[in-house]
Amino acid sequence: MLRRVVRILTPVVFVAVMGLLPLLAWLDLGVEPIDVGNPADGLRSITWAGAINDEGRLSIAITYDTGDDITRDLDIRVPPGGRLLTVDGDAVPADIGRYASVRITSTATVRFELPGAVTRYRDGGIVALAGVTNDSIDSDRALFPCAICYLDGVTYGDVPVYGRLFVDGSDDVELHFLEMKSIRSETDPGGGSVRFVGIDPGGTAVSMVAVLHGGDSAALAGLAMRDGSVDDAWDRLRTDIEDATGERFNAPVVPDGGNPVFAIILTALLGVPVLYFVVRALWDVGAGAAARRARTDDSSVLSATTRPDDLEPALAGLVVGDAGCGKQSVVAATLLELARRNVIEVSGDDARRFSICVPAEARGHTKFENAVLTALRPVTSGTGPTEVTGPPVWHSSQAALVDKTLQRVLFAEARRAGLLRGRVPFLFSAGTAVAMSVIAIIAGVGLGWALVFVGPLLAMATSAAIGQGLSAKGRSARDRWSAYGAWLRKSDAQLARAGAHEVKTLGDTLVYAAALGGAPVAAESLSPTGRAKA
Amino acid sequence: MAVVVVLGACSEPATIDVRAADDIAQPTFATLPADLTNSPQLDALVPRDNVGLPPTSEPADGTLLAEALAALAATDEPPTMLTRLSIYGDDVIIGYYRRGVTGLSVSASYRRGDGLYVGEPSFSEAPTFPLSAVDPGLAPRMLDALRRRFPEIAVVSVDMDVGLSYDFGLCWYLRLEDARGGLGTVFVDPDGTVIAVDLN
């Protein structure tokens, strides 16, 4: 029962654990948050908001959140033409309307209006909060000026920047930034505004150009139209600024946390072992049903009157296994074979009472035969002569151990003979696990590095738990030996009643009959478990 | 351990994302008050303590502007573009190009009772602005509003000049004085919106 549970659970665990990789790959396709790696001290964030009226004028609010309660000096710089300057709602005097100084604590919102930042073209408009002076980015004409320069007590570091641009009647707004990285944006449902977020590395000035596609935006209606398209204008502006400053505009990116190709590949790779396990299970169910039918009804098996080949009796019994009906024992067959070859001697006149003499020099031809001889000798006798009287030949306390030990030897011999192979080949499942893990590592999926090691271990456990099955050669041998076994069971009633002591008389027919279920009395009397199988 | 926990609780968020729409409000636009006395930017104009002394300079007389412009319109070749418009306590100076010829700059002075005197041309390439941008009724309203709100302050001159408009585009430039002397400048849009206050 436990073995059956383990056989079922192990592949389920393998699939479940390896299935985490495609699952994480698919989940990674969602929006990735932005890491603030090295936050600046003294400035927790900057929030920018801008709205455009029907004259193309901007109303701007910039909120500085220092993240502490320290009172600081803030030197205000507004772009040329900025007007109606207030800080937290209070009008403040400013040199020529552009330069002011205030003291702030915790947060401060600087508001002003700015005409002239919006230019209309036939198919859209451009909002330019970017400028160049002496081949450098003009901090005063930016989205906001250099914070680390004008706000006391701010250290160099990452400053999160949040923003929202309100553009009435436009739902196609393209944003481009200078000196800002890790940018994400979202256009609000129904249009009207676009929100963005990014990192201002170093707390310097950030510039922004918004390209408004569509010439029918209400925000552009009151502006004179210039020649050319908005895309051409943007290209020129971009080239001029980038060439002059050497800086490059960054645009909000599609979240690059995951690539659907990797997710698809990982899913497909996971499907391979899943499909294999399912087919294998269905195959085993079908084979099991056929074996049960064969055990109860020999008529379903074609008979063969001649022995197929010289396959070792124990191996013949192994490949036939459950497919043969009747009591059978590979150990019994081996002992009978050893007796037939006079390696050991079985003496007695009755199936119910006989003795086995194992000379000191007794040696088998195969590892399994030698294993049986070794098992038959008491530990104390070493390689000396041994005489065992039975049945039972095997002491009940040692039967299970003998059964298990001999089974391991026989399976190894069958594998060497090419009759058995793993039901789930280790190389197949381990290879799949490693391939999935490597792809996960390439794709940046979590757990990839862990499963590149854990995966093969799980594959090994799965292969071991599911066990071994007949190879093609084994299945061919099983068919031939099953047919021979059927003939043995049907053709000779004497075999069914024959005891171990009759091996000299009946020869290899009794040997193979014991292995294939045709000599239940002999098989049972020599079997370690006193039952069929062993 | 407790220190680590406290520091961790106070530290910046490790990750950020686009804020929810409700978290960022739409900025509003200023509106022109019916009474210019209530112009919000005038809150930035804080009078100095002059121990009750009034300003010594003569305040500009905004009512002269309409008379001066009427006199200008009555000339043989009235200009449509001006280079300068200045209102003082007893006169108005108007600069423009004769017959619209750039470089041929003339300065006309208007005094109540004396009428308009047009000087001889001199060379100048000062930028021009359209006469139509000048609302003759705005100057007296603006000056009246400032006088009512800040009786201790005198607007000693009112100028419209591209050079004095800085980056604001065309605007009125009002120079202020109190008993101590120069106090500052108020910039006013042609429509009457007080757009900035610059204190000395």
**Total number of β-strand segments of chain B?**
12
Q: Given the C-alpha coordinates, what overall shape of chain A results?
A: rod-shaped
Distance from first to last alpha carbon of chain A: 19 Å
Q: How large is the radius of gyration of chain A?
A: 43 Å
Q: Helix segment count of chain B?
A: 3
Low-confidence residue ranges of chain B: 1-10
Count of alpha and pi helical runs of chain A: 16
- The neighbouring-strand order within the major sheet of chain A is 6-5-8-3-2-13-16-15
**Oligomer class:** heterodimer
Low-confidence parts of chain A lasting 5 or more residues at pLDDT below 50? none
Strands of chain A, count: 23
Q: What is the helix fraction of residues of chain B, given as a range?
A: 10-25%
Shape designation of chain B: globular
Decide which structural class fits the backbone of chain A: alpha+beta
Average pLDDT for all residues of chain A: 84
State the major sheet of chain A: 8 strands, mixed
Gyration radius over CA of chain B: 24 Å
Largest interface (CB < 8 Å): A-B, 52 and 37 residues
Question: What would you say this structure looks like, in words?
Answer:
The complex is a heterodimer of chains A (534) and B (200). Chain A is built from 16 helices and 23 strands. Chain A is of the alpha+beta class and 534 residues long. In chain A, the strands form 6 sheets. An 8-stranded mixed beta sheet of chain A has the order 6-5-8-3-2-13-16-15, with no helix packed on it. Chain A has a 5-stranded mixed beta sheet with strand order 14-17-10-9-18, covered by helices on one side. The longest helix of chain A is centred in the middle third of the chain and has 37 residues, at 260-296. Chain B is of the alpha+beta class. Chain B is 16% helix and 30% strand. Chain B has helices at residues 2-10, 63-73, 138-149, and strands at 15-16, 81-82, 84-87, 91-97, 103-111, 115-118, 122-124, 129-130, 154-160, 172-178, 181-188, 194-199. In chain B, a hairpin with a 3-residue loop joins strand 3 (84-87) and strand 4 (91-97). The chains are: A alpha+beta (534), B alpha+beta (200). The A-B interface holds A 31, 33-36, 39, 44-45, 47, 49-51, 53, 57, 59-61, 67, 80-86, 90-98, 111, 113, 115-116, 160, 162-164, 166, 184-186, 188, 193, 195-197, 199 and B 11-19, 21, 23-30, 40-46, 166-169, 184, 187, 193, 195-199. Strand 1 (34-35) of chain A pairs antiparallel with strand 1 (15-16) of chain B.
